[in-house]
Write a structure and sequence with these properties.
The structure is a homodimer.
Chain A: H1 17-20, H2 23-43, H3 49-60, H4 66-73, H5 77-89, E1 93-97, E2 105-109, H6 111-131, H7 137-154
Antiparallel strand pairs in A: 1-2
Helix pairs in contact in A: 2-6, 3-6, 4-5
Chain A binds a DNA duplex through helix 5.
Amino acid sequence: MVRKKVKSAVPDTANDSALRELVGYNLKRAYMTVRDDFVVTLEKFDLRVTTFSALVLIVDRPDMTQSQLAEALSIERSGVVLIVDELENRELINRNKVEGDRRTYALRATLSGIRFCEKVTAAAQAHEERVLKNLNKKQRTALVEILNLIEAGGSS
Amino acid sequence: MVRKKVKSAVPDTANDSALRELVGYNLKRAYMTVRDDFVVTLEKFDLRVTTFSALVLIVDRPDMTQSQLAEALSIERSGVVLIVDELENRELINRNKVEGDRRTYALRATLSGIRFCEKVTAAAQAHEERVLKNLNKKQRTALVEILNLIEAGGSS
DNA sequence: TATTGTTATACTCTATAACTATA
DNA sequence: TATAGTTATAGAGTATAACAATA
């Protein structure tokens, strides 16, 4: 049977006006919107968001260690192992020996890793255009500035 | 041994400048900052974020159904069952019979549920003050406006 | 046939803890 | 003693799929 309201005091949409009073709720909703589209974007490259971030960080900063990567990604070292394993198995990065400290690896992107990263980054930029199409340049700048103020407040 | 750099071309902090170019990355970082503090805030009430949202929605809109709640929370109906179970076990809400459709429940907060919700909401507002302390009134308004533009773009 | 709520199960992501090898 | 990386395991949170009751 098709849903049919005959008479009722109850509307059939939720009322989230109280939650909307919280900035955090609006932040979460927008974040989810962006993330959902980004996840779909990265699926074409068989990448998860964190794996993409890891690759970009390694490309951007050759010879970083796994512990530094864990710190940057805000995850545990044990989680980094799996991510680095995958990137290495796909020959996008290498674990290189470090002279003077045989405990650590210097992570470095391969040539194909760098090229791959460039392609994915282009797709990420297209994703951003898509998902931020309602915002003009000034709004995007203002948004990032405010977001960074929030992030800066978290550590104080 | 204390970590001691003698000489090295490699800085010991990560470089996320490439990721910072993506609005989504800044959005995620700020979201994580806010969420982490909110999770701690809600722990005192033995609530998870989604359970809190569910309670507020039910208080705000008496007699909504579980399916409507699932839609509003953007989760599956099966997940709502567990959340409603918990809220009901804690006597914060009731599952009431609906005349004319014996399949559905009308969810309604109890008196103590409403009072509890008010207390948690006050704590949530204090949390927001804390986490948004770096933003003035104008910035908060601008932020929500821009976030809502992003969210609106997701459905188009 | 379609929908609501339910259950059982599986999956994704991450944390925790214990371990090794090195420092 | 402390640190880097590793492994095994567990937990949180959610989705999927199948089901009974009802529409």
